[in-house]
Amino acid sequence: MGAASNRNSSYHLPDPFPMPCLSGGILAMWRDWWKESGEYDDQMTEWGSEQFEMSLRIWRCGGSVEAVPCSRVGHMFRGQRPYSFHGEAAARNKKRLI
Questions:
Q1: What is the band of 3 on the pLDDT scale with cuts at 50, 70, 90?
Q2: pTM score, two decimals?
């Protein structure tokens, strides 16, 4: 059978591809772009819809949103939230986008 490098010599990692929107809470960008774009909207409270707001801002400022296939993201799920979630805050955030 041979070494894995010989068997897989024709394989290449898939290229990044454009996406219309970020996934919530999973993003990476250059710090200078983050700072220059205005960071998070300070009028949005808690969490909810920030991925839509940030995606729209990226597109309006000439950037692009790309998915990087085969990237790895770790996430630790908790048994329960250590904080309260206020549905009205998420609804307010969504209204800021409309």
A1: low
A2: 0.69
